[in-house]
Amino acid sequence: MAETTNRPIAAIVATALVAAPTAVVVNDQAADVATALTEKWEGTRTVPYKDLVKKWTVCTGETRVEMRTYTLAECHAFLRKAIRSDYGLGVLKCTPSLQNSVYQLGAAISVAYNIGVSAWCGSTMARQFNAGDWFSACQAFSLWNKAGRVVVTGLVNRRNDEMRACFTNLSPAYTLTVKVAT
User: What is the pLDDT of residues 137-155, one digit of tens each?
Assistant: First the structure.
């Protein structure tokens, strides 16, 4: 026999909703910021080519698909999926505080798309975001300006662009304040 309760149905439903975990998703605005930055700096080529470090690449910097000719629509679909799933969720897994920050999350996804989620999660950028020093996290983007141990002007420019996005609407509450021991 089913257990009965005197609690109203609305109270039971409200309790279940409060206890339900919230889904981690990349919001539309952050995905738009990441897409714009990534498309600008990766470019889109429908025919496979070798990138600066001689890795086969196609579409918008995609290295994880079959190397063949794709349509622009296919390339855009790859990028949308990668930003919302692999890279976006990867960034949020190790820097969950970015969940509701449009520009910082968008910039972080763009960096992760370029350097990889593992590199992002182990980076000074991620550590600074997690420590609550978002200003320093945004500044740390500039450390990732090399390909094959050589400073690349294009990466310097890309990181400057991503830093500009990261600093957009950055609240003073997210900058580390000096704490004096008492």
Answer: 999 999 999 988 899 999 9
> How far apart (Å, rounded) are the C-alpha atoms in residues 153 and 82?
25
* Angle between helix 153-167 and helix 28-42 axes, rounded to 10 deg: 160
Beta bridge partners of 57: 49
* DSSP per-residue codes, 111-146: HHHHH-HHHHHTSHHHHHHHHT-HHHHHHGGGG--E
pTM of this structure: 0.80
Angle at 147 between CA 144 and CA 150, to 5 degrees: 95
Q: How far apart are CA 152 and CA 156, in angstroms?
A: 6
CATH of 24-174, one of 1.10.530.40, 1.10.287.470, 2.40.110.10, 1.10.600.10: 1.10.530.40
- Amino acid 40 reads K
**Pairing mode, strands 56-59 and 146-147:** unpaired
